Amino acid sequence: MKKSRFWGTAATQVLMVVLCVIISVPFLVVLFNSLKAKGPASLMELSLPSVLQWDNYAVAIERGRLLTSFFNSMVYAVLGTLGTVLVTAPAAFVLSRRAGKTTAFFYPFIALGIMLPTNFVALIAVMQFLHLMNSQFGMVVLFVASNIAFSTFIIFGFVGSIPRAMDESAAIDGAKPVRLFFTVILPLLQPVIATVALLTFIGIWNDFMTPLYVLNSSAAWPLTLSIYSFFGRFSQDWHLVFADVVLTVFPVFVVFLAGQKAIVSGMVSGAVKG
Amino acid sequence: MLIPAITVNVVFGLTYGLRVFDIIYVLTNGGPGRFTEVLNTSVFNEFALGNYALGTALSSILFVVLAVLAYFILRAMGRRKVEA
């Protein structure tokens, strides 16, 4: 009996290893081929590079103008995340605490924004009217606006789990509403804000469609667009394309690894109670 | 007990699936022919060609479809929660 259990566990382990290998093969292909010379890389084999060509990265950075687009991506992701949190945390707090006719009227509108698609043609007409097209500021504003729905929804669910007694005791101690929110409630919201900030950051970093519609000039392009045009121009030079891909994925990969735990825990605590 | 979590996942999954754009645009761009085209890629193609009216019309269709779907999913899930 003991023996059969051993074989059962061994089979599961082997299956897991096989699945892990299948998942990691594409990543390894990209990583290995980004370090090869032009000829071997175009074969796209899963083999260790014979000579490490670190030059590929330098060439990809220089010819793809990655520094500009990396800076742009950072601006969009960091400022967009900050703006989203600053706008949605107070909004969710008020929506959750003041259960009245007004909030009952507005909350479904915000929650619907999670599911409904953006009408980009109309959006661009609005952006042109407000002179926000083709500017980095306009992109940040747009990203904040498009993330309001999801973030408010997640934070709203979490605010319900903070006891009302906290607000009341702070109010009795003489805290004005603004101070009450920033010194008492905001520290308690920290876990869910970490989740929202990480998801927003990764979402903006990976967004391809929004900048494709809004930005015409390549000076304001984020990494996703620059890698797309890089692939168009250098589709013969796979070693450069792979190097470009590695450089693009790396920052968001680090952010995700650092914040993995916060994403999962905050999602569960916020979403379910919503 | 799990119904609220499942509701959230179903809604997110469905709406994301109906709204995919980047993977299809980058990999096949709707081709060969129009076999892999989804609403969002055709909206962009019409927009790129300057057919703004057709683009908004397609967007509005997607909007209506998603709104109806979301309404029925939320209602069905809500009813099951009451029964349990």
What is the end-to-end distance of chain B? 9 Å
Distance between the termini of chain A: 48 Å
Order of helices and strands of chain B: HHHH
**CA-atom Rg of chain B in angstroms:** 16 Å
Please tally the helical runs of chain A, counting DSSP H or I stretches of 4 or more residues.
Answer: 13
The greatest interface here is: A-B, 21 and 26 residues
Supply the helix-strand structural class of chain A: mainly alpha
Unreliably modeled segments of chain B? none
Helix content of chain A: over 70%
- How many beta-strand segments of chain B? 0
N-to-C series of helices and strands of chain A:
HHHHHHHHHHHHH
Please state the CA-atom Rg of chain A, rounded to the nearest Å. 24 Å
> Based on DSSP secondary structure assignment, what is the total number of beta strands of chain A?
0
Mean pLDDT of chain B: 78
What kind of sheet is the major sheet of chain B? none
Strand proportion of chain B: under 5%
Please work out how many helical segments of chain B DSSP would assign. Answer: 4
Describe the main β-sheet of chain A briefly. none
Shape of chain B: elongated
Low-confidence stretches of chain A: none
- Please state the average pLDDT score of chain A: 82
